[in-house]
Amino acid sequence: MKCALVFPPYFITFQPYSSLPVLSAYLAQKGHTVVKADENIDFITDNLTVPALSGIRERAFALFRELAAKPDSTPRDAFLLRYITGCFKDEFFNLVLPEIENALETIRDPEKMRQRLVANRARDVILKAQNLVLQDLRLQTVLRTGKTDFSKCLSWDEIEKEIVTDSAYARYFREKTIPALEKAAPGVIGVSVIVEDQLVPAFILARELKNSPLRKKAHLIFGGPVITILKKVLAGTKGPFELVDSFGLFEGEQTLDALLTVLESSGDLAGVPNLLYMKDGKPVETPKKMLPELDSLPTPDYSGLVLEKYLSPVFVPMMKVSRGCYWNKCGFCNNRYLTSGAPHRRRAAQQVFADFEQLNALHGVNCFALWDEAVPPRLLEGLAQLVEQSGRDFKWFAEVRFEKVFTRDFLQKLYAGGCRALTFGLETGSPRMQKHMNKCYDIGVCETILKDCARVGIRVYMCLMVGFPGETPADVMDTMDFLDRNSRTVFHAGVSHFGVRRFTDVYNRPEKYGVIIEDDSESFSSTGDVNYQVKKGFGMPLAQSNFFYTQLQKKLTQMGLMQNEPETHYLVRC
Prior knowledge:
Elements: E1 2-7, H1 19-29, E2 33-38, H2 39-47, H3 50-68, H4 75-87, H5 90-107, H6 110-113, H7 116-145, H8 156-163, H9 168-184, E3 188-192, H10 199-210, E4 219-223, H11 225-229, H12 231-235, E5 246-248, H13 253-264, E6 275-279, E7 282-285, E8 318-319, E9 322-323, H14 335-338, E10 345-346, H15 349-363, E11 367-370, H16 377-390, E12 395-400, H17 408-416, E13 419-427, H18 431-436, H19 443-456, E14 459-466, H20 473-486, E15 492-497, H21 505-508, H22 510-513, E16 515-517, E17 532-534, H23 542-558, H24 567-573
Parallel strand pairs: 1-2, 1-3, 3-4, 4-5, 8-11, 11-12, 12-13, 13-14, 14-15
Antiparallel strand pairs: 5-6, 6-7, 9-10, 16-17
């Protein structure tokens, strides 16, 4: 039976996400036929054109004139006026419209991308254009649903309002996605929902499919981390099951394989692991089944994706070489739930190197992104040794923890074996908060590693966080002092504001951290945050932590650390 794998908008555009290539390779290994559709890159690039962006400008300005001319302004009108004036400024369009075509050409040209200032300009134009597209989508949401507070968690009622009205997503799916799927004629359609921004578009696609003849022949399944986190909410809501036949939980390889096999033989869905479906009006969850090891998995299969569409001068495969996190203790992370208690599993260095060689042979690529929660240092050491011994010109970056093993000698070995960038999640420069959030870094060790990375030529991308429960202004000042001391050894630093996510330690034990979580039993927020407040005496209240979050953003900008060059582009420039 043929399976179509679909990746909906809205997500990053620099390279294809790994879920479709990983799943399709596994299913092909099991004898199934697979077609892939990355609707995210197609939808976004379709909107990064002068006519499409001009249409956004015309709609926004026409609405502004209409609202400004009204004699009696309602609170909703006032919100819309503020939204339009803040998001759709003349200066944005005056930058983007004349330059977007050249920027897209530049971002895909290896020669032009070697010129750092030219590349930065192109990225800036494209990011501003993508933001205009995203803000237009949100403006249309406000107009269709009346929603004006995007800080509150998403409800099924709000999703239903989105999917029953016409939208840019619905028109795109009707005109392009569904005709292509009808031509492919799959028996199963799998939709991969990786981030919460994809959830509403995914259900809009499901609604459009329901009105298509294809839907009578194909089983529709949603999967991905968002679906896993929403398991209990989905099980308690009938609406989603009117649009989607089943929901895949946790890992998807064995689920899709078993589902295709069962549907071919008209078997019982009860035999499919990691599945949530409705039977006789009641939700049924099948037993969990996780992959015992990763070395038997085939190399991700990127065939069928139009790699030239992605906004990068060359294709950079995004690879996950492990499942779970070997540390698995941070108070703000829900990885423990997503892996369902399975042990940390990793691919052998020899197998990762074999993946590099196969992808190089198939696509001519020599840059690779290891995008794990935290790649074990010894795996990186083994990989670097294999790359150096082979003499291959492979370059790669990885997401890692600040570990004592990252000495200058160790980092030099990684550099000799192709490592050109490492992403570290420092989160905070406060020793007290390091212990409190169970990150448990030694700040002195972190500073030594940063200096040694700079000495050997490995670029550092660093992630920070403000607002973890218990944090005080003094703790934020520790983070700022850390940046002052180490700004010359960090290329890029980004900051996020803490949010309570489902199934993290903060969520599971709110009394320990002094937070009050609002009822989220009907909330469709998932990897996004649930609504909460901080108890008095447990650090900064939300208003104060948001203030310091803004201050840290400003500091990073002033220090020149808010770079817009992703690791994949840097690898290409290397």
